[in-house]
Give the backbone structure.
Amino acid sequence: MHCLNRIRPTFTSPLHRWLTWRLVCTQLFVGGLSFDTNESVLKDVFEEYGEIIEVKVICDRVSGKSRGYGFVRYSSEVAASKALKEMDGRLLDGRNIRINYAQRE
C-alpha cells in the first residue's frame, strides 16, 4: 500500500498536453540581457507585439542585479511568435538578445 503513495500521476490526456503546449507557446525566454535591464524596460520593448501578461527579469539574490535573462508571457500565441521573429538578435541596452520559446521543466 505504501508504494502507491510514491507513484506520481502522469497526465497524458490530450487536453493536458494542449494546455501545456499553449502555455509554452505564449511564454518567451529572453537571454543575453544587460545587467542594467529591468522589467519595465523589457515590457516597454516587447509590448509593441501584443498584450503582455507577465514580464520577469531574473535577479541575483545578493546584488539584486539582473542575471542576464528573463521571461515574457503574452496573451496570445500570435503575439509571442511575432515577438520571437522580430526581436531575436536585436540590440537592447547595448547587448544582442536571444529569444526562444520557454521550456517547461
Remarks:
- Confidence is low (pLDDT under 50) at residues 1-8.
